[in-house]
Amino acid sequence: MTRAMVAGDEAAYRQFHEAYCPRLHRYLLVVAAGDKDAAREALQAACIRVVRHIKVFSDEQIFWNWLTVLARTALADHRRKRSRYRAFLDRFTLHTRVEVSGPTEEGQADAQLLATLERSVRELPPDERELVERKYFGREPVREIADDLQVSEKAVESRLVRVRRKLKDALLTKLKHEPTD
């Protein structure tokens, strides 16, 4: 079956799906401690990885072991992504609560920091500003940005790391030199 999958045989992929996806889903449910959504997301990601990285396996047990590694990795990636998103939501909610709660000393400091950050983003070169706006304000996935820019996802992530460092340095410099209200 794996030989036919490597050759791109659609029937072999259907056979794989019928034979292994239910079993893999049950495996992921156990690994995900019953989290059905996480198991379903991880299964989809694992199936995509199978299509991208399929190779010929001579033994069914070795193939299954490979599938479980792909599935566990997909689950870990899903959890990491969800964790980052929740952390972002927590920071956003905290920021919103500070704005709504009125002018406190902490709220004023947050407002000053936000104003300084917005000014620093506006001062970025156009290409870096667009990258930050698309990723963090527009919430575009790195893959879409990379496709639009015709570069690799890794290149986009590297640029984002550099821009974040640049913004951090600019913020720290401005905050040191700006008078507090």
Description of the structure:
This protein is an all-alpha fold and 181 residues long. The protein folds into two domains: 2-81, Rna Polymerase Sigma Factor, Chain: A (Orthogonal Bundle); 103-177, Orthogonal Bundle (Arc Repressor Mutant, subunit A), CATH 1.10.10. The chain is built from eight helices and no strands. The protein has helices at residues 2-6, 10-31, 36-53, 60-101, 105-122, 126-137, 142-149, 153-177. Helix 2 runs antiparallel to helix 3, helix 5 (105-122) packs across helix 8 and helix 7 crosses helix 8. The longest helix has 42 residues, at 60-101. The N and C termini lie far apart (70 Å). The model has no long low-confidence stretch (mean pLDDT 84).
Q: Topology of this protein?
A:
Elements: H1 2-6, H2 10-31, H3 36-53, H4 60-101, H5 105-122, H6 126-137, H7 142-149, H8 153-177
Helix pairs in contact: 2-3, 2-4, 3-4, 4-5, 5-8, 7-8
